[in-house]
Amino acid sequence: MALKKILLTLGLSLSCTVNAMEDFYPIHSPQLEIPDIGGGVGLIDQQKEKMIGEKVYREVQHQMPIVQNPWLEDQFMLVFSKILSQTQIGSPIGLVIVKDPQINAFAVPGGLFALNTGMVTSSKNMDEVVGVMAHEIAHVTQRHYSRSQEAFKGQGLLALAGIIVGAALASKADGDVGSAVMLGSQAALWDKQLSYSRNQEREADRIGMQFMYNAGYNPESMADFFETMHRATSRLSFLPDFWLTHPLNTERMSEARLRANQFPRVPFNNNQQEFDLVKWYTAAVSGQTSQQQLDILVKQNSYAGLLAASEYNLRQGDYVQAQSYLNIARKMNPDYTLFNIIQTDVYLGQNKIEDAYQTIISKQRIMPENRALTYKLAEVLIRQNKGKDAEKLVNRFVNKNKTDIQGWQLLQQASNLDQNNPMRTVNVLRYRAEAQYWGGDEEDAIKSLLHAQRLAKDNNAMRARIDIRLKTMQDDRKLRI
Questions:
Q1: Distance (Å, whole) CA 416 – CA 201
Q2: 14 in helix, strand or coil?
Q3: Is 424 helix (H, G, I), strand (E, B) or coil?
Q4: Which catalytic residues are annotated (predicted)?
Q5: Using H for helix, E for strand and C for coil, what is the string for 70-106?
Q6: Which residues pair with 109 in a beta bridge?
Q7: Can you tell me the mean pLDDT for 309-313?
Q8: For the chain, give me the number of helices (H) and strands (E)?
Q9: Greatest CA separation found in the chain?
Q10: Would you say 201 is a known binding-site residue?
Q11: Where is pLDDT greater, at 474 or 1?
């Protein structure tokens, strides 16, 4: 019970339902009334917040079951970016998808946001998910974490980051996993922090709705979610994560509904199919559906159901059945990005490399800016022993996002094919170190770089490059949560 109470200290974790929409219809909105928090408020400045966010990112990657799926990540980033574009957050650390059936999400200063697959599979429409994201982004833009530090005088910079990781771990089946991180003087501060949390929740509701409206989404969906969860909990013998981290009362729900009703009506946009694709594909990759459920969708001629059923059987190793679903889906829409990605995977599973290449290259050439298509093409190129071509493709994305674990893993595989490069092993170790580091395995990442450092001793430029990166990793490892 104490652990559940400590979860309330966050004031930064929201639970909700999800969906994904690709079309954006801008709407003229009222002037935003968002308090200007500024860099001087709170005890943690923005640079330190970024450091904490990156540390927590690595811990989450290391300790939680993260879904590494470029297509899903890209879908959520499409929505995420529409909200972020209204803020001064800048480049976020990242958005991670946690393989967890519970309905939950959380945010960390510096721009790290996470959502559970259970939030996706439980949602009715995209706007509900946007409500969660907008609420979480409001927590970060208003620097609630830093401002709350005033109630934690004398604590280390990473004390609350430890609470965040512990809260995330507590959502696992074994709630005691996070208890070790939670022990200490933070627990004694719970009562003091709760008063901040209630006010911050209301502020995040209000500002989150403004963000939603300006991005073209319906603020009423946030109020809808509150009421749906309230009705659902009356039938449960336990409280979901949403209730633990975001305690609601009748007053707050009423305020949310009244506030939402004050916005002009948002025009209806027909993006349900895009949401259904995200929802059922998420269910398939996270194991949160069954063949029986998918068969019902297939009988209803659901395109989303067909692709999800194909992915589900692909993961079972039944390539023939996976292909049978794709054959039906092809007649409905052969040009959708997810269709091409799943078809490529089915061919790769059958070792039909040329078929896989022709499937993905035709789509990637049209959309070279698409990360999911590019990474799938790179995977095929690696299977074709074309490491240099794969490296060139992936580097464009990794150079923009240093936390891209999948990108680093692809670079490691691609560089290993470059047999004639005297720096081949050094590059493999460098890329492996980055994948290990951002995956939270800091100790092994440093070992990989030390090995690369020894092998590069005769190459001054490479040695200097490794030295700089190694020092950064060693310094960051000293930061303890």
A1: 49
A2: strand
A3: helix
A4: 136, 205
A5: HHHHHHHHHHHHHHHCCCCCCCCCEEEEECCCCCCEE
A6: none
A7: 98
A8: 24, 4
A9: 69
A10: yes
A11: 474
- pLDDT (tens digit, 9 = 90+) per residue, 387-411? 999 999 999 999 999 999 999 999 9
379 labelled binding-site residue: no
Name the token pair of 217.
């989404």
The tokens describing 398, both together, are: 């990794």
**Does residue 322 contact residue 314 with C-beta atoms inside 8 Å?**
yes
pTM assigned to the model: 0.82
Distance CA 135, CA 308 (A): 29
Is residue 338 a contact partner of residue 346, using CB atoms and an 8 Å limit? no
From the candidates 73, 74, 100, 136, which is the catalytic residue?
136
What are the extents of the domains in the chain?
A: 2-23+37-261, 419-481
Alpha helices, DSSP H only, in 91-156?
A: 117-121, 126-141, 144-148
The catalytic residue among 49, 73, 205, 379 is 205
CA–centroid distance for 292 within its chain: 28
Alpha-carbon span 305 to 283, nearest angstrom: 10
Pairing assessment for the beta strands 94-98 and 112-116 based on DSSP bridges = parallel
User: Rounded CA gap, 16 and 120, in Å?
Assistant: 8
What are the tokens at 3? 């652990």
Q: Residues 209, 128: contact at Cβ < 8 Å?
A: no
DSSP state of 218: -
CB atoms within 10 A of CB 104: 26
Question: What tokens appear for 289 in the block?
Answer: 């559906």
DSSP-assigned letters across all residues of 228-246: HHHHHHTT-SS--HHHHHS
442 carries an active-site annotation: no
d(CA 449, CA 447): 5
| 404 among known catalytic residues | no
Residue 50 to residue 83: CA distance in whole angstroms:
19
In whole angstroms, what is the distance from residue 455 CA to residue 451 CA? 6
User: Binding residue per annotation — 139?
Assistant: yes
Residue range 111-119: mean pLDDT, rounded: 86
